[in-house]
Amino acid sequence: MKDRSDQRVDRIVIVGGGTAGWMTAAALSQKLAGTGISIQLVESSAIGTVGVGEATLPQIREFNRMLEIDEAELMARTSATIKLGIEFRDWGRAGDHYIHPFGVHGEPIGPADFHHYWAKAHSVGKAADFGSYCLPIVAARQNRFALPPDNPASPAHAYSYAFQFDASLYAAFLADYACARGVERIEGKIVAVECDGESGFIRSVTLESGSQLSGDLFVDCSGFRGLLIEQEMKTGFADWSQWLPCNRAFAVPCTISGPVAPYTRSTARPAGWQWRIPLQHRIGNGHVYCDRYINDQDAVDLLMNNLEGEPIADPKQLFFTTGKRKKLWNRNCIAIGLSGGFLEPLESTSIDLIQSGILNLVALFPEKQCAASDVDEYNRLMDLEYDRIRDFLMLHYVLNQRDEPFWRDMREMVWPDSLREKIEAFKRRSIVPQYDQGLFQPASWLSVLIGQNLLPEAWDPRVDAMTGDELSTRLQRIRTSIETGVDHMRDHRAFIESYRACFVGTEAKPA
Q1: Residue 508's pLDDT is what?
Q2: What's the CA angle centered on 374, arms 371 and 379, to 5 degrees?
Q3: DSSP readout, 90-118?
């Protein structure tokens, strides 16, 4: 067999720290342990990070498990709270509210999916609010939480959870992890990039100090600047502003007022929306908006006037364009995080896109020449991820029933065919998207479709085999089971204190 050792990647250079850089470094240090591959991360303390994304999706738990990170330690080190979903206020009509949970609605009661039975019962006024058939929603509304049981057969098993944490503390936590496993952190600012004249591959980066870092594979985690993927390689950017026009945000933390909720909140505003993310030590707040409909001063005033506690820092303004690089892997450079693209944080997808980029890189880890088939497959997978997230974010906007100019324009925009087909399929026959690959599954689509007042005109005909009385009985039985389960859960704050104690060792583990 031909010896291909000369084609092996020996040196990886990660450009930029922050959440994207240190998640990449931590994962590669774990997955490539024992290979002898050198991993260097270069970052400058003089260059700040965005540091706004504090809410995550349940997939982050899979990432942490891959790294064998203890959740109790993670929560203690990052001031984390539990997240059971996202509450949306005023997104349909003023006064509306619903929760997109990390779990399913209902349980099997016949050959058709649960939402078909609910739709029939609701059409004749015999069903409660859709959210009342979902355990994590009922728990979130009561500020309660318990770890899901290990028994898959238990009805209470059908939910998951994520974290609301300080992203800068998470990055520092992973930096410790990665450096303990051989990653070399190099302080410095990159001032030059050297590429091969024939292949266009990056060969080295030069720091302000004059030192040079050579590599076989470069991961661009430099944020919006796209130092390698765009400034050097001119990859190009697919601008999605015609579909997601919000282009600015103000972010500010405030003191905690009231219970620490196990969910993130998004409240619709006249030209965008406001987030609320409760941590153990503060609440993260922000106002995402489109500057064509509101000026910066009014935008920051609206945010500051709607805080629940006292601000503990000055508001920070962010500028962005929604979209993605035309290629996230170009030659021997992979863009992960904001350098690869940005989709507004409405559904907390930023960290998940980082995670997807890392895991796809590990699965398709290349040789020095970066085979075109690997590059194409990586870009196909990431394009699919971005496209489907884009459609799901747009769903929230196009289903609004608000009267402000911004919201009318969002309703009346030209929708991508992929989104229009999904909405029409649900409206006509209660059909929801189901993917082999992709982030948001049927339960997520149902939450937004029904939560924003789009009800199906028909349902699976097999539902009609069940009598109305039997259907009402089954639905009530599900609600009673959920309410009983939630009654046995702990207060969210009490759970956090007990779970933190698992790490510091001052109290027994929670039941």
Answers
A1: 33
A2: 125
A3: SSSSTT-EEEEESB-SS---SSS-HHHHH
- In order of their start, the domains of the chain are 9-80+166-237+322-386 (3.50.50.60), 101-156+388-490 (no CATH), 248-319 (no CATH)
DSSP string, 406-427: HHHHHHHSPPPHHHHHHHHHHH
442-451 vs 417-429: helix axis angle to the nearest 10? 80
**Taking the mean position of all CA atoms in its chain, how far away is CA 303?**
22
What residues form DSSP beta bridges with 333?
Answer: 218, 330
Over residues 352-402, the pLDDT tens digits come to: 999 999 999 999 999 999 999 999 999 999 999 999 999 999 999 999 999
- For residue 3, pLDDT over 90 is answered with no
CA distance linking residue 482 with residue 474, whole number of Å: 13
Q: Are 226 and 48 in contact (CB under 8 A)?
A: no
Task: Report the catalytic residues.
Answer: 83
DSSP state of 258: S
**Which two tokens mark 407?**
């919201």
Taking the model in full, what pTM does it have?
0.94
What is the token pair recorded at 81?
Answer: 């709270």
Provide the Cα torsion 385, 387, 392, 396; round to 10°: 140
The residue assigned the tokens 């240090």 is: 29
**Could you tell me the two tokens for 239?**
């601008």
Helix (H, G, I), strand (E, B) or coil at 55: strand
CB atoms within 10 A of CB 83: 29
Instruction: Give the strands of the sheet with 283-289, arranged side by side.
Output: 97-101, 85-89, 264-269, 272-278, 283-289, 248-254, 316-319
Q: Minimal CA–CA distance to 337: which of 375, 386, 381, 372? A: 386
Beta strands per DSSP E along 315-365:
316-319, 323-325, 329-330, 333-335, 341-342
* Contact criterion met (CB below 8 Å) for 246 and 272: yes
pLDDT reported for residue 48? 62
Mean of pLDDT over the chain = 93
Q: Give residue-wise pLDDT tens across range 266-303.
A: 999 999 999 999 999 999 999 999 999 999 999 999 99
pLDDT in tens, 318-332: 999 999 999 999 999
